Amino acid sequence: MNLRKQVDFPLRRSITVLLAVMTSTLALSTHAQSADPETAASESVELSAASNAANSQQLTLRQLGANYPMNLRGIEGIDSVNFDVRADQVVTGARLQLDYSYSPALLPDLSQLNVLVNDEVAATLMLPTESAGTRQQQLVEIPPHLITEFNRLSLQLIGHYTMACEDPKHTSLWAKVSNRSTLTIETTPLAVPNDLGRLPQPFFDRRDARALSLPFVFMSEPNATQLEAAGTLSSWFGALASYRTARFPVSIAELPDAGHAVVLATGAAAAQLLGVAEVTKPTLAMTDNPNDPYGKLLVVAGADSSQLKEAASVLALGSQTLAGERLTVENVVSLAPRQPYDAPNWLPSGRPVSIGELVANKALSVSGYDPGTISIPVRLPPDLFGWDEESPTLKLRYRYTPQPVSTNSSLLVSANGKYLKSLPLPSVERLGDDQGLLDLLKSDDSLLRETDIDLPLTNLPLNSTLEFRFMYDFIKQGECRDIIIDNMRGSIEPDSYLDLSPYKHFIAMPNLGVFQGSGFPFTRLADLSETAVVLASTPSQEEIAAYLTVLGRFGESTGYPASAVRVTDGADPEQLRDKDVLIISGNDSLPVLDAWGEYLPAAVSGTTQRFELSDLTWRMRDWLSPDPDVNHRGARTSISLAGDRTRSFFAGFESPVNPGRSVVVLASAAPAALSELTDALIGGEQYEGSIEGSLAVVNGSRVDSLVAEETYYVGKLGWFKYLQWLLSGSVIMMLLATGLAVALLSLVFYVVLRAKARRRLEG
Known about the structure:
The protein is of the alpha+beta class. The chain folds into 6 domains: 2-54; 58-189, Galactose-binding domain-like (Jelly Rolls); 196-328, Chitobiase, domain 2; 352-476 and 486-499, Jelly Rolls; 504-715, no CATH class; 730-762. The longest helix has 32 residues, at 2-33. The chain is globular and about 95 Å long. The N and C termini lie far apart (102 Å). Residues 1-54 and 620-624 have low confidence and may be disordered.
């Protein structure tokens, strides 16, 4: 049965492709016959071009995961990337624009470059001598029937340099494929049923490698509770999108002309949208977009705003339980509150964490003489305090195939591309007289070893990747005897673990770097239950879009929806008590900004702007010290300017309402400029500079950090560690503490000796 399904699937997909193409052709033909021939012909071409552009996806090999150019070596070198196709689309055409070069030593009659899709040959490129050693470009058409929903694109070099005996690892056997090579996929949309059981599809499809852009539609001007509901949903989609990033355009009472959207509605507007007489309970539904036959609307509705928020929480927290075209929520009970630092995406810091918890077991094994890298993603809590602590220990257990004679094979360990350690992989010969290991090899052709590796926090950025690469020496047998037997295996045992439990949570603030990297301190609680977002009482669409995009970034960091966030206009300071405060302002009308103006390192008022500057502008650092005093760059100058254009900025400071609480401000003089801030927050290779310190100014793709004034601390240290840390930063305090300790000890000895002398005299 399974074999029949595998055989029938390409046939069914090909039939679907043919029907889609025939339908498109028939539509164009009908349109052409109903008008003037010349006009119809031109309109047909324009329609076809627009359709192809709308349903064409172009990705470089770098975007598909090839961080470096593919280096194909040996008589059969191969490298691969993965690409997927959305479930609501069918492929009608695909092509690979290949950018490559190859060795001049290759024999053209025996050498070739194969393009494979899902291990089937899509094309074979000859390697003529006259174009060897120079950059080549070739357009390869890929048959659509080879492409399924999940795909692997492979480039394979079959290389030979001589007709006689050859070295299969000879240095002249090479070809390089640039990771700027592009894969273009043309698709036709498919109509999918209205079924909540398909969620998060089609609104988010994990097969789609592009950034998520999902419109949010409010059927009326949203109040604070409705904005909280929308924030819950945007953070959920942000968590799903992960590294792809997500943006959320906003409109009021206007459905998108094409594509999918999330619609939030209450009362009569919700009833009209759902086609019912009245909405009395929290309701979720998937309906067709009336403006697009292939578009869908995810309707979140309720009789009032509180029911709307309840429906949004059910959707974000329990989407796996939903089914059908429409359903109502009967009851929701919160069983357990979130705890600090328990975000699903963050590495737990209170216990040892096994490698098997972080990646699937099948991703921990590699094979061959030139195997790929085993990558393990690690997302650290941003406020781990590494001062005067032992490095976090990785208890590594690994297994490999020992070679028979002495070699220089090794296991390379690195973090984010930075070399950490090399572990030898001894051959059978080097095991010597260790009879226990030799006996073990008789029953198992692999050898298990373990070691401890120190991973200093300076080598582990917040979002890190631990990388393990098995490097095997190829043993030369002699002329005409070199044959590659692909029996080399290596694996990382899933019970290897990383232990961060010795570290405390303590960090100097404000620190916009950790805000950009992980949303800290707001994400300390994954549901944002200690976060208040301040928006204007009637926020603009751009301000709402910025708010949703920022919460999407928080969801990307924690992997959990912000189901407990609070939105306010900041008029009542009590609403901000015991909260970390995020302020988003697209103009200068927020009262809270006026009230807290003395704490802000920057301000914008109409065409006038004020910025404070420190030595950070003269001495930019690409590292952070565990000693907060080293990072401190207090403001030295304040400049006020007036002009026809103002710059947007990020600012951070301690909350005037609660000591130890944080305020982060995203501000611009015009609502449209807020997109500059959210784009900079998402980041990318196009940005010059980074968001750091307590003030960062954004101008297009340029980011300037101006002040790093760390004035307060978040977290707790044990009393003894805190005392050590305080004394280490001040020689005077160290001398005073030493003098006090000597005085106390002298007093104790004096009392003890006097008592002893008194007893002796009395005796």
